Amino acid sequence: MKRVGLIGFFGWGNFGDELMLRCWSDAFAGSAIARKVNTLLHRPYFEEPADSVARRFDALVIGGGDLVHPDAISPLYWNRSWLQKPIVIEGIGVALERRRERSDVLERLTTFFSSEMVRSIGARDGASAAWLREHLDPARPVGVSADLGFATDLPAPVPPRDDRMGIVLRKVPSEEDRRVVRRLLTWGEAHGVTMELLVLATGAERQREIEGLRSELPRVPFRTADSIEDLMRAISGYRCLFSAKFHGAVVASRYGIPSLSLRPTHKISALACQLGDPELAMHPSEFSDTQLLEVVRRRPPTDSVREAESSAKSAITRAVDTLLAAS
Fold it and tell me: What Pfam families does UniProt report for this protein, alphabetically (predicted)?
């Protein structure tokens, strides 16, 4: 069997990235041996030179997630040692909120994306694809598909409770986060709804987020889980999800759970546009208490969600077929 190296922010426990690691592992099961390339969760990420790491694999997959930063380059994702093997880049996004661009970073990225060893390139959204085409002179046409989180197999949902909603924050809660949580708790109490903080992470990332919640929101109960599957099940049981994490919204939409965004980004705006669900990208502060009660009762458009699932699964299939055929 071919040995495929998986390159991404894998192993730290961030929910979205672990979804994608699981997605690739499942996609290659039975046809290749797929493993993440990094053995360390800190620089230099490897216990041996990157050239030696590359030689352990027959081909490499990079993605998905926001792996392209215009102002910084990661030796994990865009290491020139990877260019000795056939590479598929799939499901990636550009961190467009980072306005600064460094010429040396763009030069390094251009060298990578224009290499003939790159066999295909897929972006998660149109804005990221446009940036890649404009700045990096890619060797292959840049395709666009739905986020790879739409391709992950979902566990069976748990029966939803009309009186429970989830709140997902990122890392250490800010003053704005604390203000929003206080408002949602007050609103929920007035409408007979129990609000629950969900730590949407596992491993080291989960521990960091728990410490942040204990420090900044010590009186607010929170929920954790040991696995990505249990976190998905937790989301499936909510009436609504208020999420600062993009992939919380992705999974909620797949379960038919409405969500609102606690963190405006281009990718959540693109997702709302793709699904035809504009409220998905809106912040609770944009609604009165009465309006909020209506917004949390809506349903994500089923047809659009199914189209996104089909798009992401097709992208995964094409990427796997491309790598298995590469020599």
Answer: PS_pyruv_trans (PF04230)
